[in-house]
């Protein structure tokens, strides 16, 4: 059962690496046999796949299409780039006036601010107000920007200046030039909402993968658990390990596809919102917990905090685990983690198409 985001935070203490789910295709020709039904879609600027397990192909495809439509709805509502979204309306009014938003949007922003407070600002939805001072071109650079330039680049980033009014469900950014961007958590939220809808429609087993944000429930068509692969940053087309799971979210993010180097030091594209410097020490972070929305935010927290502090942070959270791959190739895991390691990759299997 998918736990509420808020309940995990209340216990508090309670991305792009390759993440894939491999299922076994059933034999064809058997009437009313349970199968995996999979369809892909481009949502929120990323590749999503939706899998429903059912012996009713009509129900399965209806549920998959409903999940896709839910993702599209959330994208329109909360997109940073859509000129009609409620996030854009908030940004246009920064430093001027509060903006009344839907309860859904208000609640989502409120949850992100709780995560910001819990992580001491390592996660910050006002990061879009920062100035772009780096070029992540996979090239060697002469030096980092001057310290005063780096410091100035984050002067408009501060989640504490997002003002919420519960009486009116309004949101206001305190200073002009501030910007909200929910990209750090929106894919996870979209996956969570789509999964809830598909389950309500009667899909007892399924998996949704939002560009590395994976949430699964029930079993595959053959009765087996879901196998979630974790990519190897050193070999982008290969897999380093996998998890065999159900009723859980597995979110993997990478910091190795967009980067630059200075004197051989690697700097990935994830920025510490407090210092303005690129987060260092990690190439890949995988978070495992019941809530895909929360996991989506936690991977960024761990990147910013770094290997040791990030691992210690996760070990304090109830019901959350992680595995990390460091810049020097080490694999670190939280107290509750157990990984399987690939010797050969499983063969890809076919799935019915609409």
- Beta-strand portion reads 25-35%
Residue runs with pLDDT of under 50 for 5 or more positions: 1-27, 342-354
Major sheet strand order: 2-3-8-9-12-15-16-17
Task: Give the % helix.
Answer: 25-40%
What's the number of extended β-strand segments?
18
How many structural domains?
1
Query: Looking at CATH, which topology would you report?
Result: T-fold
Shape: globular
CATH class wording = Alpha Beta
What would you say this structure looks like, in words?
By secondary structure, the protein is an alpha+beta fold. The chain has helices at 5-10, 57-78, 86-92, 103-118, 147-153, 183-200, 292-305, 307-315, and strands at 19-22, 35-43, 46-54, 99-100, 140-141, 162-165, 170-173, 205-210, 213-217, 226-232, 235-245, 248-254, 259-262, 265-268, 282-289, 321-326, 331-333, 340-341. The protein has one domain (36-341): T-fold. The protein contains eight helices and 18 strands. Strands 2-3-8-9-12-15-16-17 form an eight-stranded antiparallel beta sheet, with helices on one face. It has a four-stranded antiparallel beta sheet with strand order 1-10-11-18, with no helix packed on it. It is globular. The two termini are 28 Å apart. Residues 1-27 and 342-354 have low confidence and may be disordered.
What tags apply to this protein structure?
globular; alpha+beta; 354 residues; 8 helices; 4-stranded antiparallel β-sheet; 8-stranded antiparallel β-sheet
Short account of what is shown:
The longest helix has 22 residues, at 57-78. The protein has 8 helices and 18 strands.
Task: Please write out the topology.
Elements: H1 5-10, E1 19-22, E2 35-43, E3 46-54, H2 57-78, H3 86-92, E4 99-100, H4 103-118, E5 140-141, H5 147-153, E6 162-165, E7 170-173, H6 183-200, E8 205-210, E9 213-217, E10 226-232, E11 235-245, E12 248-254, E13 259-262, E14 265-268, E15 282-289, H7 292-305, H8 307-315, E16 321-326, E17 331-333, E18 340-341
Parallel strand pairs: 5-13
Antiparallel strand pairs: 1-10, 2-3, 3-8, 4-7, 6-7, 8-9, 9-12, 10-11, 11-18, 12-15, 13-14, 15-16, 16-17
Helix pairs in contact: 2-6, 6-7, 7-8
């Amino acid at each position: 059962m998918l736990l509420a985001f808020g309940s995990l935070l209340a216990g508090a203490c309670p991305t792009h690496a390759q993440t894939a789910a491999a299922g076994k295709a059933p034999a064809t020709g058997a009437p009313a046999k349970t199968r995996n039904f999979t369809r892909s879609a481009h949502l929120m600027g990323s590749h999503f796949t939706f899998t429903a397990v059912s012996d009713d192909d009509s129900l399965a495809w209806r549920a998959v299409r409903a999940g896709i439509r839910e993702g599209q709805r959330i994208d329109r509502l909360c997109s940073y780039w859509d000129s009609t979204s409620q996030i854009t309306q908030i940004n246009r009014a920064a430093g001027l006036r509060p903006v009344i938003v839907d309860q859904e949007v208000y609640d989502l922003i409120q949850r992100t601010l709780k995560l910001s407070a819990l992580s001491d600002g390592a996660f910050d939805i006002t990061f879009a107000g920062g100035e772009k001072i780096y070029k992540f071109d996979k090239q060697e650079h002469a030096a980092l920007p001057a310290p005063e330039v780096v410091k100035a680049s984050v002067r408009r980033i501060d989640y504490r200046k997002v003002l919420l009014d519960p009486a009116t469900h309004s949101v206001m950014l305190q200073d002009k030039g501030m910007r909200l961007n929910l990209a750090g958590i929106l894919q996870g939220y979209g996956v969570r909402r789509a999964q809830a809808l598909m389950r309500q429609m009667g899909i007892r087993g399924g998996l949704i993968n939002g560009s590395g944000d994976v949430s699964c429930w029930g079993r595959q068509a053959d009765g087996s658990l879901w196998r979630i692969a974790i990519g190897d940053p050193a070999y982008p087309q290969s897999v380093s390990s996998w998890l065999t799971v159900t009723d859980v979210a597995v979110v993997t993010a990478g910091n190795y596809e967009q980067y630059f180097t200075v004197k051989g030091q690697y700097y990935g594209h994830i920025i510490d919102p407090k210092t303005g410097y690129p987060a260092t020490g990690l190439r890949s972070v995988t978070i495992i917990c019941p809530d895909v929305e929360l996991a989506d935010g936690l991977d960024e927290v761990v990147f910013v905090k770094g290997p040791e502090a990030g691992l210690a942070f996760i070990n304090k959270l109830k019901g959350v685990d992680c595995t990390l791959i460091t810049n020097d190739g080490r694999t670190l895991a939280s107290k509750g983690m157990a990984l399987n390691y690939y010797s050969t990759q499983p063969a890809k299997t076919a799935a019915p198409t609409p």
